[in-house]
Amino acid sequence: MSRYREYPKISIITPSYNQGRFIKETIESVLSQNYPNLEYIVVDGASTDSTLDILRGYGERILWVSEKDNGQTEAINKGIAKSTGDIVAYLNSDDLLLPGSLFLVAQIFLDNPKIMWLSGDGWIINANGKKIQLEIKLFKNMLRLFPVMTVLAIANYIIQPSTFWRRTLHDDIGFFNEDLNYVMDFDFWMRAIKKYPLKVVYKNLSSFRIHDSSKCGTAFEKVFREQQEIVYKHTSNFFIRKLSDLHYMLARFFYKLLKRY
């Protein structure tokens, strides 16, 4: 058997809209992995900036489509529906995979045939790629020591671009909820962890970017509010709800403090 065929096929989906200033770096972070069984799909929402010129420059190295859509969640689902990989993940058009991530992820899935999904650590970076919010990174690293649904409901400890799952997970819990604008990933994690334990990887797999036009940078209060709605949807436990409410209030205060400084 060739070395190529030994590796499971990984499909990475990148939803995109007018992220020309970041998307090339995002694409390079995926292609430079040199993973031999990669399917990389960019689903663009009819960008009007430099995005399409950048996508055309990659020729057949990536698959892409550019057409109007109803936003990020629909783009992710569209990409997943087009994909054919055994392992799936999505990487937003301003985030980065760190070197060696795909080989590590593939090996973990090969060594653990029963796991359905995994999530690793990651950095938080600004528009210039500088590491920021190290306190939040440390807090989430600590929470991932207890990868159970109760803790996840209280405080979302999952790093989205560091999270990968088997394609068959969609057969069981469906796709991302297109009624959600901000935390469609959190809703997906909650559905997944109700059925399958999370495999935590204590290595940095990605960099999550916060900047002046990102959702977490401009609408963090809406993000937290929608997240609380998801918590109340998935659990009726009074104490978990109230602890989640407390975390929301503290996180809201902390994010406002960070923006001030």
UniProtKB/TrEMBL annotation:
InterPro entries: Glyco_trans_2-like, Nucleotide-diphossugar_trans
Glycosyltransferase 2-like domain boundaries: 11-133
One Pfam match: Glycos_transf_2
Protein's name in the database: Glycosyltransferase
Organism for this UniProt entry: candidate division WWE3 bacterium
Lineage, broadest ranks: Bacteria, Katanobacteria
